[in-house]
Amino acid sequence: MTITTEQMRFWSPAVRELEPYVPGEQPKIQNLLKLNTNENPYPPSEKVVAAVQAVLANSADALRLYPDPDATALKHAIAKQQGVGVSQVFVGNGSDEVLAHIFKAFFVQNEPVLYPDITYSFYPVYSQFFNVQTKEIPLNENFEIVIEDYKQVNGGIIIANPNAPTSIALSLAQIEEILKANPDRVVVIDEAYVDFGAESAVSLVSKYENLVVCQTTSKSRSLAGLRVGFAIAQDHLIAALEAVKNSFNSYPIDRFAIAAAVASFEDQVYFVEQCNKVIASRDKLIVELEQIGFDVLPSKANFIFASLPTKDAGELAKELRERGIIVRYFNKPRINRFLRITIGTDEQNQRFVDALKNEILV
Amino acid sequence: MTITTEQMRFWSPAVRELEPYVPGEQPKIQNLLKLNTNENPYPPSEKVVAAVQAVLANSADALRLYPDPDATALKHAIAKQQGVGVSQVFVGNGSDEVLAHIFKAFFVQNEPVLYPDITYSFYPVYSQFFNVQTKEIPLNENFEIVIEDYKQVNGGIIIANPNAPTSIALSLAQIEEILKANPDRVVVIDEAYVDFGAESAVSLVSKYENLVVCQTTSKSRSLAGLRVGFAIAQDHLIAALEAVKNSFNSYPIDRFAIAAAVASFEDQVYFVEQCNKVIASRDKLIVELEQIGFDVLPSKANFIFASLPTKDAGELAKELRERGIIVRYFNKPRINRFLRITIGTDEQNQRFVDALKNEILV
Fold first, then answer.
1. Are residues B15 and A243, on separate chains, in Cβ contact within 8 Å?
2. CATH class held by domain B47-267
3. pLDDT in tens, B21-49
4. Which CATH number does the domain A5-44+269-360 belong to among 3.90.1150.10, 3.20.20.120, 3.90.226.10, 2.40.50.840?
């Protein structure tokens, strides 16, 4: 729709300039193979179903009552699974909300927040929303983060690890180097994809008072439909996030989401098993794609970032789409020759490879 | 916990000054009569249970996928029930989130937003959070909103109707007078309690390009545990809210909440029946309390605001609490002689009255 200049007078001036985030599409197509939003191909733990059934007991009478505004049961389950204290856990309505609160809590400073030029595209959006100054730090030619670049004056640092959409991970030693170089600023490690093979920085939380680790249940726990994310940090940083959260929305997580997420965190066996399946499928898919001629960046995520030297990536995405296979293509400088492909089941990955081998690249 | 000055260096300066909202407590006490947070005493529509069961089908496989970021099915259900167009509906994670987005979208102006001195205590919190200037307009001695006071220079107006915690409602004619007097500013009518006897301003949306009506499923639909709120306005104002929402969190409403809320909006018969029961119980309770000597403000909400000239309200709240009955007491100027009492079932209200008559006031 078109908004007239006259109608625009009602908007807050800063809101007229916003450039919102654009999520991967959620098309409603039959027999669609959806490899575009890094969802998990497996269902969540079966304990999730029982937990939600319990909320429905007695004609869903529990729904008439507000949820626990602190989601204490969920914080306990996360703390136990992560091996940290309950007061070191913050929870939110998806890690997107947790990240928004992080930008408000720590990054509204006189110096710019640093993040890579190629990374989660919501970071510049949060920055604009909360009037945070930013400085984008270019990845090197291999799409790697250069640690030395994060040793300059800043108002905070946020790094996705593994990075998205590149899929490349930093080591814990590299993260520690950044933490040590910035003792007066918060360093956020956004670990949305960490469970698929990277090292989590949660083990560093007790040692570094400036570290915030952010994770989500959307990918490795198959709960994208639920909207539960969390941050782990020392108490004094969690307190800032709670102050922000309680100035925005007292009850961000509903009764179903709390119950279902608790059940997921309590089923560690299923969690590990399912992550390992995705990792195995990824490594198999990479071999297959390399055989066809793709260059694939080294992935520690549940997606890969791949390019085919002989074919335009946008065209390739279009031809896949015509066959009901959706991958993510970013028409942006430096990465417009790549496709970001979510890891499916072995059968789904095979359908993708077959479409390339037998139809598109013949 | 205590945060040291040294630890505070990590916080954004403005966040160090925040004074967050404090929600009504959610105590875990046996046989508690909870009349403190304006929840509905009846369960939600039974159609809600079936809708959530459907999400759980096939081992809850649907949960691995992100929800529709636009919650289109929910917007359709609300539009149908409210008699407006789908593009006139905005949805959020509880009306608290919708209100937060409203403050950001419309009220960050050079002039102050106007609201009553006695009203929902989250308004000043949002204002501080988004750096919105404010001007509190005193209610008159009968705790009524004075329409003339809202005809002055402002950056927007927000009025809870019925107002909380007073329970007193404006007429549509009064609201129209405010809308006409402020053709260049957004006027928000926060109708959290409207379904218990007040007139909704939704019928005015097509006529006034500056009107935003905000409602919630938490009270009249018994879905406080679900976190679904919505706003209704002309398309050009909804577009501002969408720009703000998509700069903060793409997927604020989870799959359970979407399904359950849709089912609730589709069961209009149960909705009307249940609201009428609460209204009847309220009117009965007011008569009983007046007989004991209470002054009760004229309520169009699912709560009443009542004072007893012969007894300190804080003391009364304490004695009720000792008997497992919790009501809300605000230790604030002008209203510290009142209790805000949520309407329960007739049996619950009787327990409350009996405790007063037979134990506390003997």
1. yes
2. alpha beta
3. 988 777 777 789 999 999 999 999 999 99
4. 3.90.1150.10
